[in-house]
């Protein structure tokens, strides 16, 4: 039997990259998946097609998680479609690097609104429906440990996600809801390609520091997310796991 048969999962920012891989992996394990997207309906529909084409259940739901009403609407759609909720993956996020002198209010608020406020608003909406055995998985970044130059705002936002994970694990633990974080290293996605990371000297430097000698693939993160979503991780909460090939 599939490990997540009968479970319902919401994955935010799931139209591409890590979020898409997590949505597909949860669907492959039997979960009914709400594939959230902010702008790329085409990408979300492809993820839904991949899940349903393999015999699973999935729907695409638009929503900007940085807005309370839209975050609530995403969760409401999950309940409307499937009747309950068991798993929330807070994956929606943006990244942009800038040196100290180039940081602006707009730069700060765009990153913090999606990466931090979005995580809180979606979790707030989802927590009303999660019961015993529920699992919340926050996607952070190894940047919060590595603190690379020119990333003060982005790294700060992911450090905040780490803190949220710890706080909410304590806050929701009495309800037997688990909260954990996954902090990927550099992962080859559409985003890292468009940002120029893949094939760059930056990538070469990261690979040189990575004991397993490569950058990550979305599926590397997805497999870890599946573990945290299942009963196999039933005694794991409040943890932030770096999934980065040994990069520290």
Sequence-ordered SSE layout with sheet pairings:
Layout: E1 8-11, H1 17-28, E2 32-37, H2 41-53, E3 57-62, H3 68-82, E4 87-90, H4 105-127, E5 135-139, H5 143-146, H6 152-172, E6 178-184, H7 190-194, H8 201-209, H9 218-229, E7 240-243
Parallel strand pairs: 1-2, 1-4, 2-3, 4-5, 5-6, 6-7
Helix pairs in contact: 1-2, 1-9, 3-4, 4-6
Observed structural traits:
248 residues; alpha/beta; Rossmann fold
Describe this structure in words.
This protein is an alpha/beta fold and 248 residues long. It has one domain: NAD(P)-binding Rossmann-like Domain (Rossmann fold, 3-Layer(aba) Sandwich), CATH 3.40.50.720. Helix content is 46%, strand content 15%. It contains nine helices and seven strands, in the order E-H-E-H-E-H-E-H-E-H-H-E-H-H-H-E. It has a seven-stranded parallel β-sheet with strand order 3-2-1-4-5-6-7, sandwiched between helices. Helix 4 links the parallel strand 4 and strand 5. The N and C termini lie far apart (37 Å). InterPro entries: KR_dom, NAD(P)-bd_dom_sf, Sc_DH/Rdtase_CS, SDR_fam. It is an enzyme of class 1 (oxidoreductase). It holds the Pfam family adh_short_C2. Belongs to the short-chain dehydrogenases/reductases (SDR) family.
């Amino acid at each position: 039997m599939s490990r997540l048969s009968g479970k319902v999962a919401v994955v935010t920012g799931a139209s591409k990259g890590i979020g898409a891989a997590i949505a597909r992996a949860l669907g492959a394990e039997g979960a009914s998946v709400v594939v959230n997207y902010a702008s790329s309906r085409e990408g979300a529909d492809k993820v839904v097609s991949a899940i349903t084409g393999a015999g699973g259940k999935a729907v695409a739901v638009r929503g900007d998680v940085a807005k309370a009403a839209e975050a609530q609407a995403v969760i409401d759609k999950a309940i409307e479609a499937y009747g309950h909720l068991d798993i929330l993956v807070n994956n929606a996020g943006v990244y942009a690097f800038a040196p100290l002198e180039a940081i602006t209010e707009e730069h700060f608020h765009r990153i913090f609104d999606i990466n931090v406020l979005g995580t809180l608003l979606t979790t707030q909406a989802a927590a009303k429906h999660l019961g015993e055995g529920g699992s919340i998985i926050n996607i952070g970044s190894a940047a919060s440990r590595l603190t690379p130059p020119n990333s003060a705002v982005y790294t700060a936002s992911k450090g905040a996600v780490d803190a949220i994970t710890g706080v909410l694990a304590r806050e929701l633990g009495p309800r037997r809801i688990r909260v954990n974080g996954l902090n990927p290293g550099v992962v080859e996605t559409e985003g890292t390609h468009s940002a120029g990371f893949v094939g760059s000297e930056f990538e070469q430097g990261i690979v040189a520091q990575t004991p397993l000698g490569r950058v990550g693939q979305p599926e590397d993160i997805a497999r870890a997310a599946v573990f945290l979503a299942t009963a196999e991780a039933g005694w794991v909460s409040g943890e932030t796991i770096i999934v980065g090939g040994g990069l520290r």
